[in-house]
């Protein structure tokens, strides 16, 4: 069998490609960067370095090749022939690849499954709609499967020089499972190492968002306020550690009330997540984890979504609100989303910005809690200030 992976980035290579090759599939990558496509074709392999803070294991992923997405016809020819498409381009880039997939499907005579490894609840449905809009009205799109996938592994960096003939190295942690939406797939289902199929994908998506992703974001935004540069150092700060555990617990209790304990998990799951944040070998920057705060403050996303669900089921989202307030202070000058958010807050105030991004009203409920906390943070905060205490909001002033 042969699979096309669109997006040879950290997840595309460091997770998806590795598992597809481990499952015996031939792997072709479609790369937006011509130099990356050229490197993969020249070297024919790359490595995945799995680290857990105590030991390291390196896997060679060989027998791979690539086509640049700028070569439209070459990519379409691959889509017409492969047995599976895996996509790892980032949710915002899905509209850009829809024309490629639509053109490839028109040349096929057999069904195809397309799995989107994107961190969004409706990735499969969304991609199906994008592709369908590029096809004739009478095209039998229902014969093809479109599914989302939840990735368990964090892949934090790519090492290596594209100009050299040495394999690139993708660094991540060991988890090697992913959950796919079985309702979106079409038989025969692909056999892929680590794949778990569920008919309740939305619940599992929320489990990841409202525990792992919420904890990750909480660690990043509080770490930024306290002057840390890496997640593994920030999580050893007692105040940040306690806040992260509390935020994840709030999300977990909300999930348990809505979906039951089987989906929500228990305290041991939260402690396992914390241990992953402690993994110094990942060298995971706060700037990477916190980037694009506007998306991460979305109404259904990891912080506000978890807080809204908690509020709805009677769980007080105190630390989730604190994390969301800290996200409203995230001022990374290299992050366009953060810069736009800070400009909007300065121009229009917290309330309008929060309402536009999250749909929350700053006059009531969790919206009020987030806005009030952000305003308390702002009394002593400007870019470069370091927050010494979350409990009393003590700052050290910098010039």
Q: How is this structure best described in words?
A:
It is a single chain. Helices cover 47% and strands 17% of the residues. With 399 residues, it is of the alpha/beta class. It has two domains: 2-199, Rossmann fold (3-Layer(aba) Sandwich), CATH 3.40.50.720; 202-396, N-(1-d-carboxylethyl)-l-norvaline Dehydrogenase, domain 2, CATH 1.10.1040. The strands form three sheets. It has an eight-stranded mixed beta sheet, with helices on both faces. Strand 7, helix 5 (123-132) and strand 8 (145-151) form a beta-alpha-beta unit. Helix 3 (72-81) packs across helix 4, helix 4 (94-106) packs across helix 5 (123-132) and helix 14 crosses helix 17 (365-378).
The number of E-state strands comes to 14
Give me the CATH fold name of the largest domain.
Rossmann fold
Secondary structure class reads alpha/beta
Oligomeric state, counting identical vs distinct chains: single chain
Shape: globular
Q: Give the CATH architecture of the largest domain.
A: 3-Layer(aba) Sandwich
Number of helices: 17
- If you average the pLDDT, what whole number results? 95
Strand content: 15-25%
CATH first level of the largest domain: Alpha Beta
Q: End-to-end span in angstroms?
A: 60 Å
Radius of gyration using CA atoms only: 22 Å
Low-confidence stretches: none
